[in-house]
Amino acid sequence: MKKxxxxxxxxxxxxxxxxxxxxxxxxxxxxxxxxSGSTVSGTLTFTQVGDVVRVTGxxxxxxxxxxxxxxxxxxxxxxDKGLNTGGHFNxxxxxxxxxxxxxxxxxxxxxxxFNDAGVANINFTVGDISVxxxxxxxxxxxxxxxxxxTDDLTTDPTGNAGGRVxxxxxxxxxxxxxxxxxxxxxx
Length: 187
Ligand code: CU
Ligand code: ZN
What we know:
Blueprint: H1 2-24, E1 27-34, E2 41-49, E3 52-60, E4 65-72, E5 108-114, E6 119-126, E7 143-147, E8 164-172
Bound molecules: copper (II) ion and zinc ion.
């Protein structure tokens, strides 16, 4: 009998623990619009998972292949070439690199790969950023940029990825949830 009660107590603890984690995971979204005369657009979700951030979403309207994908410093997509977003988000004054290299800008998310239909399905995790507004490595209020060309993951400070063909400001909250949906509009 005692064992039974203990088992049930454990189950309840695990279930409520999971539910709590789900609610507390900070999320942010970005709605990307075309820039530089492109047709590239899409939506992204950033979810804090422990020390790393999961990036998910779909971006469409690009030519096939790997294309540079970064978080840029300033959340200002007003320029028609995305130039008001500044350079790659770089709180540690580092040099450009790949997303999993020791030396990189925090905003270096590498490349996303577009298929024959011009669609990139995105789902990866990356460190060195957080879904936060206040932390030095926080990405809320900054911008995501998709580039015209492939990031070579080496050339400092741009990766030689060409023009900026889509831009979206990273906004705190979960646009897809029933609780946060109306509260956080990207624009
Ligand atoms: Cu960029
Ligand atoms: Zn960079």
